[in-house]
Amino acid sequence: MALPQTITSELDALVTHYPDRRAALIPALHRCQEQLGGWLSPQTLEDLAAYFGLEPVEVFGVAFFYPMFRLRPRGRHLVSVCHNVSCSLRGAEQLLEHVCKVTGAPVGGTSPDGRFSVVRVECQGACANAPMLDLDGTFHEDLDPERAERILRSAP
Amino acid sequence: MYSNKITDHGTPARPSTQQVTLQIDGLAVTVPAGTSVLRAAAEAGIRIPKLCATESLEAFGSCRLCLVEIEGRKGYPASCTTPCEQGMQVRTQTPKLASLRRNTMELYISDHPLDCLTCPANGNCELQDMAGAVGLREVRYGFAGKNHLAEPADASNPYFSYDPSKCIVCSRCVRACDEVQGTFALTVAGRGFQSRIAPGPTDFLHSECVSCGACVKACPTATLMEKTVAAHGQPDRAVVTTCAYCGVGCSFRAEVKGSQVVRMVPHHDGKANHGHSCVKGRFAWGYATHPDRLQKPRIRQRITDPWREVSWEQAIAYAAGELRRIQQQHGRGAVGAITSSRCTNEETYLVQKLVRGAFGNNNVDTCARVCHSPTGYGLRQTLGESAGTQDFDSVAHTDCVIVIGANPTAGHPVFAARLKQRLRQGAHLIVIDPRRIELVRTPHVAADFHLQLRPGTNVAVLDALAHTIVTEGLQREDYVRARCDVAEYEKWLAFIRQPRNSPEALQAVTGVPAELVRGAARLFAGVRNGAIYYGLGVTEHSQGSTTVMAIANLAMLTGNLGRPGVGVNPLRGQNNVQGSCDMGSFPHEFPGYRHVSDPAVRGLFERHWGVRLDHEPGLRLPNMFDAALGGSFKGLYVQGEDVVQSDPDTQHVQQAMESLECLIVQDLFMNETAKYAHVVLPGSSFLEKDGTFTNAERRISRVTRVMPPLAGKADWEVTVALAKALGYPMDYQHPEQIMAEIALLTPTFRGVTYEKLERLGSVQWPCNEEAPDGTPVLHERQFVRGKGRFVVTEYVPTDAHTNASYPLILTTGRILSQYNVGTQTRRTANNVWYAEDLLEIHPADAEPRGVRDGEFVVLKSRKGETTLRAVVTERIQPGVVYTTFHHPESGANVVITENSDWATNCPEYKVTAVEVTKAAAPASSWQQRFGEFGKAQESLRPGSEG
User: Fold this and answer.
1) Which residues in chain B have Cβ-Cβ distances shorter than 8 Å to A64?
2) Which one of A65, A99, A115 terminates a domain?
3) If we measure between CA atoms, which residue out of B197, B336, B356, B261 comes closest to residue B728?
4) B184, B207, B215, B429, best to mutate vs chain A, most A CBs in 10 Å
5) Does residue B803 surpass a pLDDT of 80?
6) Both A59 and A83 in a single domain?
7) Of B33, B397, B687, B750, which is the most buried if we count CB atoms within 10 A?
8) Are residues A144 and A90 in the same domain?
């Protein structure tokens, strides 16, 4: 197996920005995750290792270190619920509980129908409008469980 | 209680000409600049607590135990990552440091099971020691919070287990894998409290791990632990000995409980391995006590008779009687012997002495005939000494390495680890091999050039390299003219300059693009120190000796002989190939490579041995087989070689064995040859005897008895008994006396004694009056033969060319986990990695034949056919297939032909014209006969019903 040509040509340009090719590994992991189904499969990690001339385990070590890299398949939508101080004070735990109930996904897991994955995340910088969740990269703020439910139900 | 602890200075030594002096706890200490404070303290006898530091690895600074106070510096720097400076004032013991260390230790222990009494590392655990050293008396945190105590262990590797509940995440294992072994199989996965050691997203068995054991050795706790220690408990003593696998000759501490080996630990002071090991030496020693071991001598009159177990006396008397009967009936020359490159120098010496002294002929040969005999011949012709020119440490000084016809990561893994270390430091690499071997591209190491030649064209590629150097004026003319025979050089120049030797002209023959050859030649000629390493891919050809001489030519031409970092380095296959050759195993040479026709040398041996010696060279190994089939050779004593499985054209060898009247086999197991024997004498493993092995760098190392011989006699004692029964008594009580005799009679060994070997660890021959401590590098001032000799190396294509019936070329090799014919490794858990021989075939060859990955195929040559499973891979080039010969039932050597090296008869294992077809049945007719014969022999074993 190998990385699709669309990705390798992007990586070929990317590595030129760094003094050492392998310094581009983290941005490369992001590109792959974005373009290959929202997660990094063992095959993708191996392909990246081959691309960078690294041992697969080294790529795995980097991917495993950062929580924004997902090493398991995820649902079609990713719901990230903040649980830091401001959000917690304003009901993030109840929000998260409700999100899990509505989507059917456990925290850190995927719903049986494969629609949603739910994760608990650290501060996203929207404290002034706590609590918040991030649905596929879009912030939704000043939430209560009912508003969150409407947002989630309107997701395609 | 026995302690396996070595003096560990914490960080590696830093050689420097500049010295710095500092004060540590008021003591003035002087060390080379760059030395860490931790190491400087250790050298002065001051022990600073430490966990993540060990002297085989670079400092890491993570455990926070080796903190010190330094005058004028803020905080508490880690002494492992702090280099010494002139005038520095260091305090290692203060109340504040004690409190910091105790608190840190308390945190470690708060997430560590308190099961010391039942832990396999109990008594030899660094964590336990450090808890004691820092005076930890209580742990305030309890186990109520988050912890790792219930994490499941990974026992997937057959030899060691990984128990994360005991892990302190010091990263020593990860760093050992990276820095020492260079496999990069481990990582710290996750972060913070979730951090754990992981071999990727899988278990140890299915990961990239090569089971070298470096991580297990580096682990300061019982997290990575040998299963044998868990099973048997801690050892009660250790014996320093030498590994009996490959020609690297690693030094080991055999850790023993009673007479049971508990673990083999690579010896820190071992000069060949510097504390490193591979899966074979480190773990695959269980064959020594395998139930298949022969424990009683056996005899029978015909090979169709059932075996009778008899006493040693009866077996020896029968063997001697048969040998004498044969000699009376068929002449003095009708018997002979084969020595083993797996036995000790002393044992090999005795077998050739037995042949020359008691048989009264020179019919002695060795398994080196079929591996490195061209090395001996080729290097003697060009340089004057038939051995590798360097020590292994030399590789640390090289700037460019040529690896030709060798696969070090599989065949010589500990040397490969050293080589990869040097390559990661920036040395260049040129690989000349028909296969894309692992070195061509592994993490952090990539060959600058891979000259992927067609098998059988080594000489053409080497000539093209030399042609490029000469025609582009890149040679070291001053070196050559000062050190070599100029007349021979001029003759060679006239030859090599010819346009037919150019890369462009030879491209059609070799398949290597000319610009790659030119690039490689310029690279090699342009570095300060260039070294050439080679293996059986050089010697096992019809032009094996020519290739060795072409390598020597190239080294002389580029001035790469006579100092560290350069040289011609044959990687020897077996533990004592060098030694068995040195000991006079060849039919034409006495010990020390002196011809039997030389009256002065013969006189010397006649005086010492008290017998008349034959001045005619005896039979070479293949000639013995031919003579056996011709009816003039009837009796053979084979010590520790399985000729039926390892020699070419298996059916020919089988017929030769069948035509013998007395075949005496001395071996650990009933190997394939023993099935044709009339007398079987149980052999003794390296753990059961004293002696010496000589490795690929001419290093003579002690083999030390760890347990008594299973069958009651060490191999040398058996030869002594046989000699006595033949009326030629040999009087030795201990192998040390044999070595004394060798030293007395062999100029290059004159200074070798057991006392010296034990004092120095090992010595490299020549070891004599001129070099009392041995010779790491040969040809330093001048070549051993005086002037180096360039030899014209005309490329002559092999007879093994392809044709319409046999359109593919078969080449053979080795893999990491199995060793040679597998007699030992097949009786260990190493089979989990390689349970059968596989045929590698390129997709372009597989597809038109309808061969799919994993299917059985028939491999056929003009000599025979066999069936094995195919692996479709691009590692091999189109037109070439590849397999190994580790398993007897695969019969790889059934298809190998009688072609051999023109000078030494070394078989052409590396080039055979073959055809591959889909198999209708998983066994060829040869394999069916092989199976039936094996079954019939099995029914004849002592105590069986048949």
Assistant:
1) 187, 189-190, 198
2) A65
3) B356
4) B184
5) yes
6) no
7) B687
8) yes
Q: What is the pLDDT of residue B1?
A: 60
**What are B229-264's pLDDT values in tens digits?**
999 999 999 999 999 999 999 999 999 998 899 999
Considering only the beta carbons, identify the residue of A55, A61, A71 that sits closest to B188: A61
Name the residue facing B201 among A53, A58, A60 (closest C-beta): A60
Contact B328, B355 (CB under 8 A): no
So what's the pLDDT on residue B946? 42
d(CA B528, CA B428): 12
The distance of B527 to chain A (nearest Cα, Å) reads 25
* Whole-structure pTM value: 0.92
Is there a single domain that holds both residue A56 and residue A83? no
The pLDDT tens digits for B96-105 are 999 999 999 9
Give chain A positions within 8 Å (CB) of B200.
Answer: 56-57, 60
Tens digits of residue pLDDT in B498-538: 999 999 999 999 999 999 999 999 999 999 999 999 999 99
d(CA B926, CA B895): 10
Closest among B108, B127, B123, B112 to B221, alpha carbons compared: B127
From the list A53, A56, A65, which residue is nearest B200 (CB)? A56
Least confident of B148-152, B248-252, B792-796: B148-152
A34 lies within 8 A of chain B by CB: no
Task: Write down the pLDDT at residue B88.
Answer: 97
Task: With respect to residue A71, please indicate whether it lies within any of the assigned structural domains.
Answer: no
Residues A38, A82 within the same domain: no
The whole-angstrom distance between A147's CA and the closest CA on chain B is 35
Is the Cβ of A73 closer than 8 Å to some Cβ of chain B? no
Q: What are the percentages of helix, strand and coil residues in chain B, rounded to 5?
A: 35, 20, 45
CB nearest to B208's CB, from A53, A55, A61: A55
Number of domain units in chain A: 2
| A64 inside 8 A of chain B by CB | yes
Instruction: Check CB contact of A56 with chain B, cutoff 8 Å.
Output: yes
Considering chain B, what is the average pLDDT of its residues? Answer: 95
**Residue A30 domain flag:** yes
B560, two tokens: 């790469």
Asked if residue A123 and residue A103 are part of one domain, the reply reads: yes
Are A60 and A92 contained in the same domain?
no
Interchain proximity A55–B185, CB inside 8 Å: yes
pLDDT range class, residue A1, cuts 50, 70, 90: low
**In a shared domain, residues A86 and A130:** yes
Preceding peptide of A19 cis, ω within 30°: no
Residue A50, domain CATH = 1.10.10.1590
* Mutate: best of B178, B187, B188, B210, partner A, most A CBs <10 A: B187
| A72: in domain | no
Domain containing residue A124: CATH number: 3.40.30.10
Contacts of B73 (CB under 8 A, 6+ apart): none
What is the CA B844 to chain-centroid distance, rounded?
A: 34
Q: What's the domain range around A30?
A: 5-65
User: How much is the average pLDDT of A10-21?
Assistant: 93
- Which of A65, A89, A113 lies at the terminal end of a domain, its last residue? A65
Q: Is residue A39 part of a domain?
A: yes
Span B561-611, pLDDT tens digits: 999 999 999 999 899 999 999 999 999 999 999 999 999 999 999 999 999
What's the rounded Cα separation, in Å, for the pair B541 and B551?
Answer: 14
Task: Say how far apart CA B288 and CA B276 lie, in whole Å.
Answer: 22
Q: Please name the residue of chain B whose CA is at the shortest distance from the CA of residue A54.
A: B443
Q: Kindly state whether residues A121 and A149 are assigned to the same domain.
A: yes
- B145 pLDDT band (50/70/90 cuts)? confident
CA distance B821 to B812: 13
Q: How far is B173 from chain A (nearest CA, A)?
A: 14
